[in-house]
Design a protein that fits this description.
Elements: H1 10-22, H2 28-37, H3 39-48, H4 58-64, H5 69-78, E1 81-84, E2 103-104, E3 107-108, E4 114-117, H6 122-126, E5 129-134, H7 140-155, E6 159-162, H8 168-178, E7 183-187, H9 200-209, E8 211-214, H10 224-237, E9 241-244, H11 251-261, E10 266-269, H12 279-286, E11 291-292, H13 296-310
Parallel strand pairs: 5-6, 5-9, 6-7, 7-8, 9-10, 10-11
Antiparallel strand pairs: 1-4, 2-3, 4-8
């Protein structure tokens, strides 16, 4: 059930809508200033740059006047899309940690706001969430591991966050849906633009049974920098990140780096040493930058242990806790929603 309480005034919200429609997601020059000064002051600062051609915000300032934030919100609401910001009851507090994690590829900072589709509450889903990410060119091994891991995580009460891409992301979302659990898709473009287009049905199933989230405004298309910005939101929403296959240079490894910068657990499912798809994750494990996990219980144990240590008391973990067995078969669930099919064995 979604809560609606907010401590955000209309001026701040409308300023954030205007900025969201104007800046590139994760532009640290703006996100950092907004976190420090507030959206209204930053908007006024950028508007003043319209008369200074040499100012870094000059190009942005030319676009600001073309945005009617009230109309943008009304059009989004008519399509079942809402805009949430820091201070809203639905805003996940853990995203605030992105203010202090620097930048990767010139992207960073806490989002000025997020566009959301779906009836669930993002703060509630993110409060018990694990990101499962990996290669677009996944092998059968990778898709099977991602599907089973996500299915079991959902069965054990955890939300699964991923990016709707081909390969591991797709398998992660499907695994959670098959188990009847919620999943969150974080997109590089607007929440109304399925990417890839072939995942349109899957996107609708996620919107119906989970949430679709984006830092980019409705209608925006995906770009390379938006993918990079998206990765930090995936890491920022989750308690930890599991990499299932990933090359040395890949979006999955970028998400893992964001997770490390956030001081949250990075976990990896090891792959065959002969598989190019697993070179990145295998190296993370070898270098001690990720713990090796082989099932959902390993993931939950790592997340719980890290949370206890962060709280200042790993020794306070309940010593009577004994990890239970992970189900080898999914629970009985209704016929999968449109766009969702059972994993091939």
């Amino acid at each position: 059930m979604r809560t609606t309480r907010t401590d955000v005034d209309d001026v701040d919200r409308l300023a954030r809508v205007t900025l969201s429609r104007t800046i590139e997601p994760g532009d640290l020059r703006v996100t950092g200033l907004v976190s420090e000064l507030g959206a209204g002051k930053v908007l006024g600062y950028l508007e003043a740059a319209a008369d200074v051609e040499s100012h870094w915000g000059f190009a942005l300032a030319q676009e600001l006047g073309r945005v009617d934030p009230t109309q943008v919100l009304e059009q989004a609401a008519a399509r079942g899309i809402r805009f949430i910001v820091p201070g809203d009851a639905e805003w996940p507090a853990q995203l605030g940690a992105l203010r202090n994690t620097g930048a990767l590829h010139e992207r960073g900072g806490e989002p000025v706001g997020l566009w959301v589709r779906g009836a669930h509450d993002l703060r509630q889903l993110a409060g018990n969430a694990v990101a499962v990410v990996g290669s677009r060119a996944a092998t059968n091994y990778g898709t099977e591991q991602a599907t089973e891991l996500s299915r079991d995580l959902a069965t054990m009460g955890h939300s699964v966050i991923s990016g709707l891409a081909y390969g591991v992301d797709q398998a992660a979302h499907r695994g959670a849906l098959i188990a009847g659990g919620p999943t969150v898709a974080v997109l590089p473009g607007g929440v109304d633009r399925p990417y890839p287009a072939a995942h349109a049905q899957l996107l609708e199933a996620i919107a119906d049974r989970g949430l679709v989230v984006s830092e980019a405004p409705p209608g925006a298309g995906p770009t390379r920098t938006r993918f990079l910005a998206r990765n930090r939101v995936v890491a920022g929403l989750a308690e930890g990140t599991v990499v299932v296959e990933g090359a040395l240079r890949s979006g999955a490894i970028n998400t893992a780096h964001w997770t490390t910068n956030l001081d949250r657990p990075v976990m990896g499912i090891p792959g065959p040493v002969s598989s190019a798809a697993s070179t990145g994750v295998n190296q993370l494990i070898r270098l001690g930058q990720a713990s090796m996990v082989t099932n959902a219980q390993d993931v939950i144990t790592d997340v719980m242990t890290h949370a206890a240590r962060t709280a200042g008391g790993a020794e306070q973990l309940d010593e009577s806790f004994v990890p239970g067995p992970v189900r080898s078969t999914p629970p009985a669930v209704p016929t999968p929603a449109a766009g969702v099919s059972a994993p091939r064995r």
